[in-house]
Amino acid sequence: MLKVELLSCRMKRASRRFDILSAVASFYRRIDRRPKNGDILVISGKYVAISEGRIYRLDRVVPSDEAIELAKANGGDPRIAELVLRESEFVAPSFAGIFMASVRGILQPNAGIDKSNIREGYVVLYPQDPNRSALRIRLGILDMYGARVGVIISDSRIYPTRKGTTGIAIGYSGIIPLIDERGSVDLFGKKLKVTRRAIADQLATMAQPLMGEAGESRPIVLIRGLDDLVVEEDLEVDLSVSYNEDIYFEAIKNYLKGIYYPKTL
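Above: the chain's sequence. Below: its structure in token form.
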């Protein structure tokens, strides 16, 4: 039998730089647990970003000419467009003032920049280096408690053709982030050809119902019972797929070329 436990609690609202390790220690006290080997902590990317001071006052952002042109394409805020341009590898306007951007290979609306759960007139960016942030937290816990844990920095995301959000790992440390099932066989002995399990993203998604999206104020979730996914050394794995190998991108390109076959009744 496999038993997995998820624990979270309300934390003090954060709106300026703070010590994330002190917050993690407070979290463990609040849930009446002590860190132990095999723990996996999923921590909101916004919470980590605020702790690192990745906060901007919008009235201090001066849009470039490029940002102004980008914002005109979909009626967006030129100041947001400017920050998205600074944070991204590339940006394309969508609709309703949203810019679809690639950040370290992750395709995210507005490059993950968020106005929610922060003071009016401010926005929160992604952590500068989410993997480094996760590593620092993991090593901090090891130093304070002697516990070998895994850490995931998470965010919410949307999927093509689906309503609502789920979880995604934007950074990780001390876990197996991806399991390659290619070459293994299914229940009927058929060999798998393309399946790779996105473990880091799956763990982020597990935590999402507890974290919530609005005023829940539960930015940290402890997952216990999946010790086999925790490792001592970081495994450097690129979790993003190139756009030339992405099945959604390929299908969209074909759709735009008129290569699709509508169902007729």
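The chain has two domains: 15-43+130-226, 55-125.
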